[in-house]
Each structure stands twice: as structure tokens, then as C-alpha cells.
Predict the 3D structure of the following.
Amino acid sequence: MKILIYMFLKLLKGKVLVNLILLLFFSNIQSAELAADKVKKLHENLLIINFSEKKFQKKILILDEIVGELFNSNKMIKFIYGRKWKDLDKKTKNKLGLTFQKYISFNYVKRFNNIQNLEFEFLGFKEINEERILVKTYLKPSNEEKINLDYIILKEENNWKIFDVLLNGSISEIATKKSEFNSIIRNKGATGLIEIITSKIESYKK
């Protein structure tokens, strides 16, 4: 009788372990798919913006809502701003985050402006760790060669958001912006950065 009970418990333990492994496996797949969906939604809206006949500033406002939903702009600008971020008050951090979010939208509208035969191709995803997933895609502008466009998606408070974009697998958008803003942050601080970004957006002539 004891042998039967022991065998039963061993079998039950094995099934529980298998179920836990399967649960973890499918949970990871689901997380990766949720992260990939963010990129797919971005691409869908970039195609709409690219072929839209609306005015430039209007397209920025439309895309800004999407960028706010899909990008972790606060975490991005925090990384870009560097060590002095901790010295900023909450109001300035929020304003800088929203300004940078609009700058992302501005740059997308500027780049994706009536590109003929524009297409995106989803390649797949790779889990870096439990809170970081790499989504791999191709950008196909007109009849030109495909461009590798990869996205690092971070999980924060049970939500997946885009943190960085890698051009050709190595050129980081975050690193590029950090280099672009470095001297402004050093010489003019957060207020100066907000003013310069805002002026660049508002004064741009299509």
C-alpha cells in the first residue's frame, strides 16, 4: 500500500512539474506576442501616416497618441538625460517626458512622408530576459534594399512598451539621441532641452 501511495505521489509530482513547465513556456510565448503586437501596431500607424494627406503638424498630433501608448518615453529620456535626472523635480520630469514623446512623433512623421511602396516585414522575436524582448523586423522602402529594424521592448507594471530601436541591428536610437542632447543638457539643462526640442518641432517647414 505504501509503495502504491509513493508511486502515486511521484507520478502526481511529475505531472505538476510538467504543467508548471508548460505554463511557463506558454506564458513566455504570450508575453513575446504582446510585445510584438506593440511593434505591429506602430508599423500599421506609420503606414497610415506615410500615405496621409493631412498637414504635417496634424500628423504629429495624431501619431503622438500612438507613441504615448506604445513607447516608454519617460524611461527613454531618463536614460538619455543621465545621472542629473535625479535632481529634476517631478513637474520638469513629466514635461520633459511629454516633450520627448512628441519629438519621437515628429521624427517619425518627418521620416515617413510619402515613401512609395513602403512595407514592413515581421521576422520574429527573442526573449532576452523576463522583462526584455527583442522584436526583429525589416523596413522595405520602395525598391531599395531591406533595412533591419529591431525593437527592444521592456515590461513595466505588467505592460510592454518600446524602449529602443536598433537600425541594422546595432545603431541605437537611444544612444544617438543621448549624443545629440548631451551638450544641450550639460549647458542648458532640462529647460533648455525642452525649449530647443519644442522650437525644432514648431519651426519645421515641410
